[in-house]
Amino acid sequence: MSVTSNWASWSEYKKSERATVDMPSGGDGRCAIFYPASYAVGMANLGIHYIYRALRELGVAVERFFAFPIPYRSVEHDTMLERFPVILGSVSYEADVLTFSRWLAKGGISPSRESRERFQSHESPLIGAGGAVTYINPLSLSGICDFVVLGDGVETIRSFVRTLRRGLSREKTLAELSEHSSIYVPSAHSHGRYSLNIANTDISRDYGHGVWTTPNTVFGNSLLVELQRGCPKKCRFCTISHCFAPVRIRDVNLVKRDIEKSAIVSDFSQIGLVTPEAGDYAALDELLEFAESLGIGVSFASLRVDRITEKMMKTIVSGGRRSITIAPESGDDSLRERCGKYFSNGTVVEKLEMAADMGAKNAKLYFMAGLPDETDEELLSISELCAAARKKTGLKITAAVSPFVPKPGTPWKGEVFAGEKKLKAGYSLILKSFGGINGVKLQRVSIKEACLEYAVSWAGPESAKFLATEELSGDSYRKLEGLMDRTETVSELRRLGLGVGHE
Ligand code: SF4
């Protein structure tokens, strides 16, 4: 195996990390965990913190890898990838499946599970994955991975380590893993009927917070704290409420204890709330007061418009931020309601006015194009809402528009994906309508990326094999779309016992 990496070291990144918990060092059984994005993005993902900590506490010699800036050496000891007999990918988004595949290929490991089985079974590492994508469609990883941990991974990873420690052959290891109800082993589960399930744990028993703080993340020097998994709102396009169910909430006293303990040993200027919609957390005010009493700021990933309060705005502004992010999805009240979001344009403008009065300067508004039964007037309403908000508030507005992608497991799973041609036409209509509005900027997510997201999110066995080939290019989505068969994907998931919600 040859690794294509020039010498470079993580030492500067390591120096900036502060651990919030004591974790055993050393350990036996080398294991690499890979996040298919940059260090800055990966370290802002709580999943990798949890799995790393679980493996360390089990005595596994785990080390982290990121796609950028130093892809083939570990953060911990600059160890080369080729020294790891086990590699686990933490796959959060559909596009990450491709990054994982390409990273393996460039690192000298065939991304194709079948080809590794056929030609290199003795020298190849065991390759697994977990993460958000496994809640939605784990088949997308079946071309690459020897095994896939389904859903919440901390409990399952303990069983995985027990099996690994038995020192069995590769075949026997996979056979034993396949007996776990939340581990999908594509080679073992290729025929027959199974009752696999997506693990969902009591999150009060999970770790609840990040194990390092560092200024080198996209959220700055934050302690990540988890408040909630799943969402009680049932927006029709959203995987969080449907695929990550049931809703689980961490008690505020546990959250406060985590912050207090971490503040003693680590060093962070703010806490980053990991929750679908912070405004839904019943004890949010109590938590904000607690953070304020410790002199720590709070950052919210995104806010649901109707739940924004003066207290939340005050916290954002007093932490030095002047920007607010919300997701109206549409500029039209009735289309927004069809999406499952029940607030009006009037509420959007009113909340932005409040933000401006309290010192905000910028607002980012997320919208979707290509929604079911969308009309041209509804598309044009995006710029109308942005213009009205700008006029009333004086905020600098950024409208971020992305294509609607129907996802497995959601109520809109059966809806049509608008496709390249229709999306291009919709985008040019939107672009024209934004012409000449001062103080409003339009950002459009690439249509190619959305097509790829669509194809990967519905990948069945055949397209999963293609995702594991080494010749993936920018236009791979066209080939993937050609291989896609949504009905077949649903029936394959059903065969594995994972069809609930996908039917
Ligand atoms: S879009 Fe937000 S509010 Fe709606 S279900 Fe998803 S996470 Fe919940």
Give a brief rundown of this model.
The chain is α/β, with parallel strands linked by helices and 503 residues long. The chain has helices at 11-16, 39-42, 46-57, 94-106, 113-119, 133-136, 154-165, 170-177, 239-243, 252-265, 284-293, 310-318, 333-339, 345-357, 376-393, 419-434, 447-457, 461-467, 476-483, 486-495; strands at 18-19, 28-38, 60-68, 86-90, 126-130, 147-149, 183-184, 212-213, 222-226, 228-229, 248-249, 270-274, 297-300, 323-329, 362-369, 396-403, 440-444. The strands form 5 sheets. It has a 6-stranded mixed β-sheet with strand order 3-2-4-5-6-7.
Write structural notes for this entry:
This protein has a 6-stranded mixed sheet. Strands 14-15-16-17 form a 4-stranded parallel sheet. Strands 9-12-13 form a 3-stranded parallel sheet. The chain has 20 helices and 17 strands. With 503 residues, it is α/β, with parallel strands linked by helices. The protein is globular and about 65 Å long. The chain folds into 2 domains: 26-201 and 462-503, Cobalamin-binding domain (Rossmann fold, 3-Layer(aba) Sandwich); 212-461, pyruvate-formate lyase- activating enzyme (Alpha-Beta Horseshoe), CATH 3.80.30.20. It starts with 10 loop residues before the first helix and ends in an 8-residue tail after the last helix. Strand 5 (126-130), helix 6 and strand 6 (147-149) form a beta-alpha-beta unit. 39% of the residues lie in helices and 17% in strands. The protein has helices at 11-16, 39-42, 46-57, 94-106, 113-119, 133-136, 154-165, 170-177, 239-243, 252-265, 284-293, 310-318, 333-339, 345-357, 376-393, 419-434, 447-457, 461-467, 476-483, 486-495; strands at residues 18-19, 28-38, 60-68, 86-90, 126-130, 147-149, 183-184, 212-213, 222-226, 228-229, 248-249, 270-274, 297-300, 323-329, 362-369, 396-403, 440-444. Helix 3 (46-57) packs parallel to helix 7 (154-165), helix 14 packs parallel to helix 15 and helix 17 packs parallel to helix 19. Iron/sulfur cluster is lined by residues 231, 233, 235, 238, 240-241, 276-277, 304.
